[in-house]
Amino acid sequence: MIQFLKQCTFSVNDVFQKAFSILTSHYFSVLGLFLLLFITSNFSTTLAFYIQDYSFFLSCLMFIAFVVLYFGIQLTLFKYILRIIDSDNKVKISSIIPTFLEISNYFGGMLLGAVLSPLLIILALALICFPLIYLDSDLVYKLPNIVLSIGLVLIVPFLLRIAFFPFFILDRNVSSYRSLRLSFALTRGNMTKILLILAVFGLMHLLQTYLTYKSYYFMSIGLSVLNSFFVQPLVSVVMAVAYKDMMADYKGGDNPSVLENII
């Protein structure tokens, strides 16, 4: 177990070193795309506030437009990083703009993986736990909390397992459902590495919260600037590098089964 953790730690260190090198070499390009995400998010929020009283239809239309634009820029960022990792330093703008099919598959993957699948998990748990009501009538009041608690324990790892589906859409040109299955297969045996990566970024945010709580305002502001202009862009680069590293060791098929890769 200790040897396994050491190997995972070294692997995570390699991911961060590669990601750090890529970000520092292409910092302004990555930061520019990241700032576009920030501007789009804030501009859409401000615009929605001003037009919400004029037309509900217009508000919905603008909401859809900005959602597509925001995630389109996010996919552009991912695609740009993937091109850099593939040693294509002279990246053309036309080659990193996601196609309509890629954007459609991305939203299809989000709907299927992040919305429908968690709902199906909750529904399945509710059906499994429902007969328990006949054993104890008091459980009728406790059952919703029990189902939601168990569901949360199952849903969080599931969402982590499918987190790499956008990269399959951009890198392999696969469909929504297939990208989810490939991500599920790719992360099999790699959850410890993924959790270690999340822990590093989580510690940065916890440190900022701690400094704010302790009223170390100057240190908190400094760390906030570091998080905004370096750590958050680094997250996207780390995800792309982790995807490429795991793909290099991937020995599964191109059409994996979900049931075969649960554990």
Automatic annotation (TrEMBL):
<protein>
    <submittedName>
        <fullName>Beta-carotene 15,15'-monooxygenase</fullName>
    </submittedName>
</protein>
<feature type="transmembrane region" description="Helical">
    <location>
        <begin position="27"/>
        <end position="50"/>
    </location>
</feature>
<feature type="transmembrane region" description="Helical">
    <location>
        <begin position="217"/>
        <end position="243"/>
    </location>
</feature>
<feature type="transmembrane region" description="Helical">
    <location>
        <begin position="146"/>
        <end position="170"/>
    </location>
</feature>
<keyword id="KW-1133">Transmembrane helix</keyword>
<feature type="transmembrane region" description="Helical">
    <location>
        <begin position="191"/>
        <end position="211"/>
    </location>
</feature>
<feature type="transmembrane region" description="Helical">
    <location>
        <begin position="56"/>
        <end position="82"/>
    </location>
</feature>
<keyword id="KW-0812">Transmembrane</keyword>
<keyword id="KW-0472">Membrane</keyword>
<feature type="transmembrane region" description="Helical">
    <location>
        <begin position="103"/>
        <end position="134"/>
    </location>
</feature>
